[in-house]
Write a structure and sequence with these properties.
By secondary structure, the protein is mainly beta. The protein has helices at residues 34-37, 134-137; strands at 20-21, 27-31, 43-49, 62-65, 68-75, 77-82, 86-91, 95-97, 104-109, 114-120, 125-128. The chain is 6% helix and 42% strand.
């Protein structure tokens, strides 16, 4: 196991939480302080719908260049399509372990959609890609 003795203890309090724009135009993000505390090894944030209605690149097929991505639904629902997995509706209480580099896209989400997302490394890239071949789509 890697040495993580340089990580900091983090207590991110809900009171005074800061919500900022991020990857998605229809979402706002609350950084939970894990990126700084883990020295960039991991990011954890809450992502919630901000009421805007706009199409963006994440509704296209894309990948995240990361080693680990976990999504836990705190509220609402969303429909995603995953390469080799087909369409999946995720709802409050559901959890997705998204394997590294899997092609996926969001089809739709509720206006109260909110998730906890944990990704490693903290600074990961998102890239639009070609749709998977028909035989890989399901």
């Amino acid at each position: 196991m890697e040495d993580r003795s340089n990580w900091d203890f983090v207590h991110n309090q809900a009171e005074g939480a800061v919500w900022t724009p991020g990857l998605r135009e229809i979402f706002e993000y609350r950084d939970l302080g894990i990126k700084d505390g883990s020295k960039g090894d991991v990011v954890a944030h809450i992502v919630r719908h901000n009421g805007k209605k706009a199409a963006d690149q994440v509704q296209q097929w894309h990948i995240h260049e990361c080693d680990f991505q976990l999504v836990y639904v705190l509220n609402g629902w969303a429909i995603f399509e995953y390469e080799g997995q087909g369409e999946r509706t995720i709802r409050k209480g559901d959890c997705i372990l998204q394997k590294p580099m899997i092609k996926h896209r969001e089809i739709s989400c509720s206006e109260d959609f909110e998730v906890l997302e944990i990704v490693s490394p903290a600074d990961f890239a998102t890239k639009v890609v070609e749709a998977p071949s028909a035989d890989a789509a399901e």
